[in-house]
Design a protein that fits this description.
Blueprint: H1 2-29, H2 38-56, H3 59-82, H4 88-110, H5 137-141, H6 146-164, H7 166-176, H8 178-183, H9 188-213, H10 226-236, H11 241-264, H12 270-288, E1 302-303, E2 308-309
Antiparallel strand pairs: 1-2
GO molecular function: transmembrane transporter activity
Organism: Nocardioides simplex
InterPro entries: ABC_transp_permease
């Protein structure tokens, strides 16, 4: 029981980067904008969050800065796809490379070359009174840092908005049939714009969480492909916020198991162990794509003037 408790306790914070980034991807995706720049935005969010936290001395400010800079990239994506009607996939890839380059440039300009890399304080656990005292569940669910609680709260809020409000119903209709939504007076351009900005901001926050919770260090490879897994997670969850939570638990569980196997020294090359989460993702996606559905107009632009989509 102790080993299981420890694994589950480690899995909850490991879910946070997947949760934040995937919910951000789902948010814009349900409006029809397919963002593929997650890996780059997470790297940029990690760099900006780390640098601002290091200079200002506040992880909260660093997290907000990561949200803001990724949101700016989201605004660029929204403008180029809703106003200029450029291909969403091509623009997303361009922003991915731009974000990667910006992250490396900012770190070198602010920190430079040092013998000892700078450190920031990692996030402290904030047990929830009374709930953290519950046997087993208290330790697993209610004894983590504040960003963990925020990530789950955001997930619930997005689900509530989409499925329990009239505005959410109208919002979801944009990703299914923007022409019909437009004819009902729904502002398709505005909905796609704000959801892409906010969604991209959440992806940036996901990246900023990595140096703040694990080592207090920033390294260029620390995102380690999570941004690409997030895209798979959105499809695996059928672009539904509540199912994304379950998918994030799966990905985080595989990640924790791989790290535990590597530390345990089970005689398997560590490169193979690190490959396991991605192999598991491929296997799951083979079966998931048979039943998972996506918004009908995902990745397609809408031309309000000619009432054509493409």
């Amino acid at each position: 029981m102790g080993e299981i408790t420890e694994l589950l306790t480690l899995m909850i914070p490991a879910m946070v980067p997947f949760l934040l980034a995937a919910q951000g991807t789902v948010l814009s995706g349900r409006a029809g904008v397919f963002n593929v720049s997650q890996e780059g935005l997470m790297v940029l969010g990690a760099a900006v969050g780390f640098l601002v936290s290091f200079k200002v001395g506040s992880n909260t400010v660093g997290m907000a800065a990561a949200f803001a800079i990724a949101g700016v990239f989201g605004l660029v994506l929204a403008y180029m796809t809703t106003q200029l009607r450029l291909d969403q996939f091509v623009v997303g890839l361009a922003l991915y490379f731009a974000a990667l380059g910006a992250a490396g440039l900012l770190y070198r300009e602010v920190i430079g070359v040092t013998m000892e890399p700078p450190l920031i304080p990692t996030l402290e656990d904030k047990p929830i009174p009374l709930l953290s005292d519950i046997p087993f569940l208290g330790e697993v669910l209610f004894d983590h840092d504040l960003v963990v609680y925020l990530a789950f709260a955001i997930s619930v809020a997005i689900w509530w908005f989409m499925y329990k409000t009239r505005s959410g119903l109208a919002f979801r209709s944009i990703g299914e049939n923007p022409k019909a939504a437009d004819s009902l007076g729904i502002n398709v351009t505005w909905a796609r714009t704000w959801s892409t900005v906010v969604g991209s901001g959440l992806v940036g926050m996901a990246g900023a969480y990595l140096p703040m919770v694990y080592t207090g260090l920033y390294t260029e490879g620390m995102v380690a492909g999570r941004g690409w897994l997030v895209i798979a997670l959105a499809f695996l969850g059928g672009w539904r916020p509540h199912l994304v939570i379950a998918g994030a638990a799966f990905f985080a569980g595989m990640e924790v198991l791989a790290l535990r196997a590597q530390v345990a020294g089970i005689g398997i090359p560590h490169q193979f162990v690190l490959m396991l989460p991605y192999v598991a993702t491929l296997l799951v996606m083979v079966f998931a794509f048979r039943w998972a559905r996506q918004p009908s107009f995902l990745g397609r632009n809408y031309d309000r003037e000619s009432r054509l989509v493409g």
